[in-house]
Design goal:
Elements lengths: L1 E6 L5 E6 L7 H11 L5 H9 L4 H17 L7 H15 L4 E10 L2 E4 L11 H4 L5 E6 L2 E4 L2 H7 L4 H11 L6 E3 L1 H6 L2 E8 L2 H8 L5 H8 L1
Parallel strand pairs: 2-7
Antiparallel strand pairs: 1-2, 3-4, 3-5, 3-8, 5-6, 6-7
Helix pairs in contact: 3-4, 4-9, 4-10
Length: about 220
Amino acid sequence: MRLEYISAFFKWCIYFILANRYMKHPERHLLLRSTLRENFSEQYINRFEGYRMSDDDMKVLTDSAKILLEKIPIRTHNSFLLSPLWASLIQQKTRIPLAVVYGDLEYNEKKLFVCTRPLGPAADTESALISGGHCWIEIGGQIADFSLFRTIYYGNLQEHIRKPLIEQFGEGRGPMIAKPELFNKKGLNYAPSYSLSLKQTERFSQGHLNLSNIQEELL
């Protein structure tokens, strides 16, 4: 396992946990596949499962994350805005098959977020908070989480949960990209419950930023 820290804007960084080989967790694999069937075809899901990111793909992820770190003010519990925004930028620049999903998140078997209901077709980022879940991107066999550390540092987490997270990961962390198995080794368990449709992802990301201007910065 290799930990790689990349400098970003202000006091944030992009936090990567990279592995040399890919390991599937059968139960999570089946759960994720079932979640994706809500909004994606079998052909797309097969391509999604088989895709592995190149160095150029990873550069798009890091560059787009840095731009969002600069553009989006710090706000806690904002995963339903940040994940769709990040996904939209990635999809504008690449053809990587990805999915924006949401569900439960545990740390050392303690629930940080619990998803209580699916989002309706007309839901927005504010109503998404009612679901109680956490939102992230599944891409290339990895999980990409933009917002967790913002909530850890500035949210109202109970101290007995917040303190060990900061002791383990440190201060000044930003978006994370890692294989699910490596997140598990760090005590983080991402359990997908539902996926966002392409229309939902687009709607959640619109109206918050001028995406065309940001896309020009990625060129």
